[in-house]
User: Fold Diaminopimelate decarboxylase from Aggregatimonas sangjinii.
Amino acid sequence: MRQADLLKIAGTYGDPVYVYDAEKIISQYNRLTKAFSGVKHLQLNYAAKALSNINILKLMNTLGSGLDTVSIQEVQLGLMAGFKPESIIYTPNGVSLEEIEEAAKLGVRINIDNLSILEQFGGKHPDIPVCIRINPHVMAGGNSNISVGHIDSKFGISIHQIPHLLRIVELTKMNINGIHMHTGSDILDIDVFLYASEILFETAKNFKNLDFIDFGSGFKVPYKKGDIETNVEELGKKLSTRFNEFCAEYGKELTLAFEPGKFLVSEAGYFLTKVNVVKQTTSTVFASVDSGFNHLIRPMLYGASHQIENISNPKGRERYYSVVGYICETDTFASNRRINEISEGDILSFKNAGAYCFTMASNYNSRFRPPEVLWYKNEAHLIRERENFDNLIQNQVDVKNLFDAKKEKATVK
Assistant:
């Protein structure tokens, strides 16, 4: 998107505001499908948790994507957006048997990641096909919080528990139709991913009625100029070849599935904020903006580095700034970052704001969550209104007379 378009959106809808470029989402989806064009059956299931606005889900549906969900609410959003139940896969973690049964009643595909629930669900519903999430015990991902395939992870059934798993399947007569793994986000080493895939192939040999193998996702996207990213073209070529070999060995054409989230929407997103104050201290120049980690928590939570541009002064000379928010505790977006000279009132654009930004936003400090705008075919569309005070208190219950001031009795002296 052009900076002029972003400035116009900020002027129209106010700031802070999230903006998503639909054309970038479409190009990322096409890039991934092209990378794996060597397999006969490919299924991309967009990970709704990355950005779950119903308009984004509808866009994914028109592209032919399925939907990866982690909660019953995301399942319901997917159905509302027009996804067919069979194109939705439900992959929760640590939820109750009742929630899984609720999803099963809606007709979506079920993915189970622990032996306890697998045994309970199989005992009650042996005729409902189930995918199994395996933990390959492979460390992958750019941050410990988003590396989910290692031995200490809460996710998946350990490969060392396969004998126990097979006993449950045999005793319950369950129908296992898929095998799944997800090693983590920001995968840098393709060979590590391919190594984990071999573990998944070996596990798949234990099940004779598979329809698909789901390799998760976690492809890294660039966050700044010159940043490294997952070479999906190389991965596509190598994994497609190996997948086709496995299908030949297995004796059946299986579907190769992925669940990309960040890869599809991260680079499509921009978060626009206004500079409230430029504050010079003895050692630092702070640019304080009208937002905080209540709207974009990734730098504070994951140490994520979002490129920041001053779109109000794109040709100004660069100076060093620490960009901070208005939350009443340490709230730093960037430290000592080279940015074109900033003045109070300038609009700063945070890149890579499409994934895990609005979906992780909160009302901390009783601040309102910003609006969302979709840029599609050179036109801005408001897809979520800015919150207001009524939204903030709409579910609070003001119990009448509970804390009314007590009237003191008059005393006669």
User: Anything to note?
Assistant: Residues 23-265 form a domain with the TIM Barrel fold (CATH 3.20.20.10). Confidence is low (pLDDT under 50) at residues 141-150.
